[in-house]
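Summary for the steering committee. One of the milestones for this cycle was to obtain a three-dimensional model of the protein with BES bound, which we needed before selecting residues for the alanine scan. The sequence and ligand used are listed below.
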Amino acid sequence: MSRLGSVAVWLACATSAFAKAPQEKEVWITLGTDALEPVRGAFQGQGLTLAAPTFQKGGVAVLRMRESQVAQLARAMHDKLNRCAGFVTHDSQAEAFAAVESDGASQSAQLVASLITYDINNAPSVNALLDEVQETEIRGTINSLSTNWTNRYYDVQSGADASTWLENKWKTITAGRSDITVELFPHSWKQSSVIATLQGTTLPDEVVVIGGHLDSINLSDPTTGTAPGADDDASGVASVTEVLRVAVLKGYRPARTVKFMAYAGEEVGLLGSKAIANSFKSSGVNVVGVLQLDMTNYKGNTFDFGLVVDRTNAALNTQIRNLVTTYQPGLTVVSAGCGYACSDHASWTSAGYPASMPFEASLSTMNPKIHGAEDTLAFMGGTAANSVKFAKLGASFVAELAKGATEGNTPPPTNGGGEDPGGGGSLNTAVFDATYKAPRCATAGPDCDSGALLDGRAGLGPELNTPNTLNAGCADGTSGSYHGDESIDRLEVSTTDGTTLAAGKTVKIEATVYAYSTSADKLDLYYTGDAASPSWTFIGTYSPSSTGTTTLSATYTLPAGGVQAIRANFRYNGSNDTNSTASICSSGAYDDHDDLVFTVQ
Ligand code: BES
Ligand code: ZN
């Protein structure tokens, strides 16, 4: 729960005079599932309808309602359950989900895949792909699917024919590449899923998946109604198709295997993706990251990407944000709620694989025409401009997770692979060091990167081994939520001239943080030449330039010492939590402290 957004627990138990809110603003509620039925009954008694919960977990449900109805909810809770403080309101669904889903660490512990470090170092190849992404191509695919296949329901013949059409399209795109196969994945109903496999060169057993759903639905007449599904989800399939097209066009050869998927039967309960994810799980396929593109073409909001925070992987979501910052600077990402199992990412998450889903808007601002005859390209202005951003994000996702290179470019090191013991590339990525109790790069190189090890704070988010400070000497504040409130997510130190870290060299620190405020949040940076017995030298205090995920940097000169460290102290200096001076270990409830240990030549 954040400090200002969530107005905490509703304590208006005794009063009956609830003022009506001036505007019909909507809020998100978390409440105990045991309260749902009694409250629904009470609402019915007053001629009101209680919305179905969009998410339930651990006995807590999330639902949306008009702010003016919060009063009735409070009344109902009181009358029916004799309870005063049984629910919490939130300004956004994301915040409500964060409240329910705060235990990100346990989510990653369930992963069946071996974890890789999500990092960004493949710019020449990514940019080569991005330069080729064409709106006209994406528009063409959306147009074909939504005008030639106007009913892609999972168990009708036209739905099956759409699969064959897409299979042929992908075969045409990939003709001439013997390292790519295109196949139907048949199911127990008529429509098949379609899978194109681009074989990895050096780590073929590690798999990156990018997909969308091929089926559509007209909710009032599923089997014979018109269901163009131009946005839901011809747009996602067209974006995936465009990533495949530019990969072939640029002669991209990944180190890991890449699978492009168009799922059958999503609209009837994620059937196709569930079948595929479960079959991969039972045969032990090591999927290291999944990107789901479902609804990419409707510009429903001022921001560019709504990043689904429920039933997705926090570390992969951080990578998505970093990909946007790096390759599409200026575009904006906000956390969005989706609802329990709203699209195929949930099938992968349930099978234990890390998945992310960026989409076009937020739940309340998404395309209002989906699931009916009017989900057309025309309704979206006759353009696929909005999907270009998603195809570019998809291409950057593939080339940074699967690495390798486009023709004429040099592949970067591929790190962290479960099948790549000691293989190239992990030299500069830190691993947790049980002696120092912080991430450490044990070999001197031009840089040292914490990778995903610091992502989060205290028990919030995926950060393991907290507090990740030397000797565990500085604990973190435990208030708030992961990526609702402050965290230091990543630290990197590198020489400015690209040579090996050595005394006297100028080095740059890059600190990626999640900022709550540009004015109240402050990052203090320190260094020490001796990580075993640290005496910290202050470098400076820095303010984040934006809220959300943002990177701050500073330079300093390396002192003498073989094993050195940097300390980042991120503090909230706000109304109820005052930390006005720089400190190596501030004590605020939202403060995060992280160290990075590195070897100097
Ligand atoms: N594209 C929608 C899901 C969606 C809705 C994504 C809003 C993002 C924002 C998807 O095709 C769909 O309708 N899913 C179903 C769930 C499924 C399990 C039947 C839904 O949300 O009702
Ligand atoms: Zn959909």
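Key point for the committee: The radius of gyration is 25 Å.
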